[in-house]
């Protein structure tokens, strides 16, 4: 393989730049040319390519977002769109494509491979950390730290005014990010889609905490928690959010002065943590190794701190196991 391409697609995540840097430099090390695709699959279809050399990825390891930019591209959901994309890649002499993104992007990649023979390898990047076949995805650690930082700041004001705060975290339908940040941030209650909860119980626990001398309460709720009558979508109205609904319940049932904070897109930004840079560097390099070894339709991940090459289909279709023990531990420690 003489020439490969790399793109970032779907929701951006801190560490995507570090992953592109690793792809470029590992490929150069192996004597392979690398092309960057701007704006994900939209750039594949349009042939929006840029040649990347080792200097084009200087000073990006510490930058959030993605300098290749990301886009959502409906045309790539059609076989015609993918055929057009394959033609653009072939015209450029590109034999393999590294896709840095989430499960939607991986679905596009596997269809491209199956229909056109272009070799693809996926690199998991999403703050939600809901992709199977890898312990962690790029961006998750940074987002977790952003939420912890927010909890710390909000706790200062919560303590000063003896208020309860309901904070809403991202994660779409998954609660991995909320659980980890809630435990590490010392939240008094953690509500995630994977675990049923009883609002009376949550309120009683918060009340008991106050009676035992706590002067603040932080309830961290995942955006995807299902509340009766509420359908989760990522672009719903603010006052339909879980945080508002739970905050209102808490206030009505306990009489506590309650405030609501929806963290929103600050969770997707910021300089990647050391851990995310390390993960991105390892996975980006492993993706190049995999392509050069002739692999296709695969996703590189990290399992028990070792590089793991999985069938991309398993990563897309597999359900990442929710750690109930960790959830129980968070409950025990939050008293
Ligand atoms: P993520 O990769 O973060 O899950 P999306 O679901 O938005 O993000 O997917 C990113 C892009 O991948 C889409 O805009 C589209 O171009 C492509 N894609 C997603 N799902 C499919 C699909 N079922 N078939 C083909 N392409 C898809």
Automatic annotation (TrEMBL):
Instruction: Tell me which InterPro entries the record gives.
Output: ATP_PFK, ATP_PFK_prok-type, PFKA_ATP_prok, Phosphofructokinase_CS, Phosphofructokinase_dom, PKF_sf
The keyword Kinase is assigned to this record: yes
Lineage top rank: taxon: Bacteria
One of the entry's Gene Ontology molecular-function terms is: 6-phosphofructokinase activity
The subcellular location is:
Cytoplasm
What reaction gets catalysed by this protein?
Answer: beta-D-fructose 6-phosphate + ATP = beta-D-fructose 1,6-bisphosphate + ADP + H(+)
Keyword match Metal-binding:
yes
Q: How is its activity regulated?
A: Allosterically activated by ADP and other diphosphonucleosides, and allosterically inhibited by phosphoenolpyruvate.
Where in this chain does the record put each Phosphofructokinase domain?
3-291
Spell out the GO cellular component terms annotated for this protein, sorted alphabetically and separated by semicolons.
6-phosphofructokinase complex
Q: What SUPFAM superfamilies does the entry give? A: Phosphofructokinase
Name the positions where substrate binds.
126-128, 163, 170-172, 223, 259, 265-268
Q: Kindly tell me the pathway this chain contributes to.
A: Carbohydrate degradation; glycolysis; D-glyceraldehyde 3-phosphate and glycerone phosphate from D-glucose: step 3/4
Q: Where are the transmembrane segments?
A: none
Q: Which UniProt keywords apply?
A: Allosteric enzyme, ATP-binding, Cytoplasm, Glycolysis, Kinase, Magnesium, Metal-binding, Nucleotide-binding, Transferase
Q: What does this protein do?
A: Catalyzes the phosphorylation of D-fructose 6-phosphate to fructose 1,6-bisphosphate by ATP, the first committing step of glycolysis.
Q: How does it assemble?
A: Homotetramer.
The entry assigns this protein to a family as follows: Belongs to the phosphofructokinase type A (PFKA) family. ATP-dependent PFK group I subfamily. Prokaryotic clade 'B1' sub-subfamily.
Quote the PANTHER family the UniProt record gives. ATP-DEPENDENT 6-PHOSPHOFRUCTOKINASE, PHOSPHOFRUCTOKINASE
**Name the record gives this protein:** ATP-dependent 6-phosphofructokinase
**What organism is listed for this UniProt entry?**
Orenia metallireducens
What is the gene called? pfkA
